[in-house]
Amino acid sequence: MSTEAAHSRKSRLAVPSGADPLANPAPRVPAANRPLQYFQRLTDVRQMDIQSALDQMKTLISTRPQLVYKTSYYRKQTKNHWARDDPAFVAMQAVFLVVAGIAYSVAFRISLQGAISFLLYTVLWNWLGLGLLIATICREIANRQLVVQQSTSHVRQQVEWLYAFDIHCNSFFPVFVLLYVVQFFLLPVILQEGLLSLVIANSIYAGALSWYWYITHLGYRALPFLSHTEVFLFPIVAVVVCYCAILVGYPLGFGWNWARIMARFYFM
């Protein structure tokens, strides 16, 4: 082959430029250091992409919430991990919970001490504490029971703990919308006695819990090395059974309005 032909062939090769993100891939952080780095970034607002977090939240309450997990696939290809680097989504969720907690405290006219207790319980237990517990349990189930068996020549893949927590945060946002926003504006209706109030209130709670587990299922289904992720849909069956049982039991005197129960627990 002549020198000119060889030069012409080389000129047609696609060589990434300096502006191409694939030409200079981001440095990969060791898995052991990733959670520490993630929580350190919570203190630096300048490193957070707030707009991206808001866009993801809008997607989660749309008809195609699974699109949120596409970014996880791209992240795996470029940075070799599934979980978010940017803690903006978590930070925004905590801020929204605080604002909602203040609104509920004002609406129920509780004391300052009661308001602080409600805020701490909402953020540290309802969202963070239960989230850590659920993420850990679901991750263990996935890693122990759902990982596809590969040949011995392949390294066994596992669900990252931060990714499991990401799934919880994604799943919790529709819960926040229904139980902290929609419910707030319907309080004058759903706190009344009667069948209509019970149906509306329990429909909100059943919808929130079902939505939570559906998005949890989508998060684990997005991982190509897991199978039978339908197990994360099983809690929805329990939610539907309880919902129907309460409706059937209403004429018999044990129809519970979950909005009234929660109001008594937190504010009365």
TrEMBL record:
<dbReference type="Pfam" id="PF05216">
    <property type="entry name" value="UNC-50"/>
</dbReference>
<feature type="transmembrane region" description="Helical">
    <location>
        <begin position="88"/>
        <end position="106"/>
    </location>
</feature>
<feature type="region of interest" description="Disordered">
    <location>
        <begin position="1"/>
        <end position="29"/>
    </location>
</feature>
<feature type="transmembrane region" description="Helical">
    <location>
        <begin position="162"/>
        <end position="182"/>
    </location>
</feature>
<feature type="transmembrane region" description="Helical">
    <location>
        <begin position="118"/>
        <end position="142"/>
    </location>
</feature>
<dbReference type="GO" id="GO:0000139">
    <property type="term" value="C:Golgi membrane"/>
</dbReference>
<feature type="transmembrane region" description="Helical">
    <location>
        <begin position="194"/>
        <end position="214"/>
    </location>
</feature>
<dbReference type="InterPro" id="IPR007881">
    <property type="entry name" value="UNC-50"/>
</dbReference>
<comment type="similarity">
    <text>Belongs to the unc-50 family.</text>
</comment>
<keyword id="KW-1133">Transmembrane helix</keyword>
<protein>
    <recommendedName>
        <fullName>Protein unc-50</fullName>
    </recommendedName>
</protein>
<keyword id="KW-0812">Transmembrane</keyword>
<keyword id="KW-0472">Membrane</keyword>
<feature type="transmembrane region" description="Helical">
    <location>
        <begin position="234"/>
        <end position="259"/>
    </location>
</feature>
